[in-house]
Amino acid sequence: MGGGGSTRRVIFEADENENITVVKGVRLSDSVIDRMKEPSSPSGKQHRASGAVNNEELKKRIAEELALERARRDSEAQKRRLKQEQMYVRDEFGKLLERERISSNEHLTRAILRERAATEEERQKAQRFAKQLEEKDRELKKHDAYYKEQLARLEER
Q1: 100-126 pLDDT tens trace
Q2: Is residue 126 in a domain?
Q3: Tell me: the pLDDT tens digits for 40-54?
Q4: Measuring CA to CA, which of 16, 25, 153, 154 is 20 to 30 A from 81?
Q5: How far apart are CA 133 and CA 129, in angstroms?
Q6: Is there a domain that residue 8 lies in?
Q7: Minimal CA–CA distance to 14: which of 23, 5, 6?
């Protein structure tokens, strides 16, 4: 874009509205054409009145404008790609967080179920021990009554 001349030819022509268009499919507005026609440096030098020189200058300015426009489009495309990548990463993180939340909830649910099962088992054990204790207590009362009866008989004799 700098000092080296471009070997690429840009051909332009006037359309029906007297707007200049580039044949390669890029349309240029009047303001762009006006900027290209303005002298690049406001020095006091006179420009040649030759149409070839003006065409060459105009072609050079068009090429520069096209290069600037292409760079701007590339920059915008790169920004769009970056935004898309950011959205993709954000979505992937969201999915990962959701999977982690589900996994955590599953672990928590399993732990709660294990704890409930252990609590239920302990409650049933406590009930069995209470029944066994009541049974032993009845047996002891029976034995106590039997021995009291035997003691009363012995005392009667």
Answers
A1: 999 999 999 999 999 999 999 999 999
A2: yes
A3: 544 434 444 444 557
A4: 25
A5: 6
A6: no
A7: 23
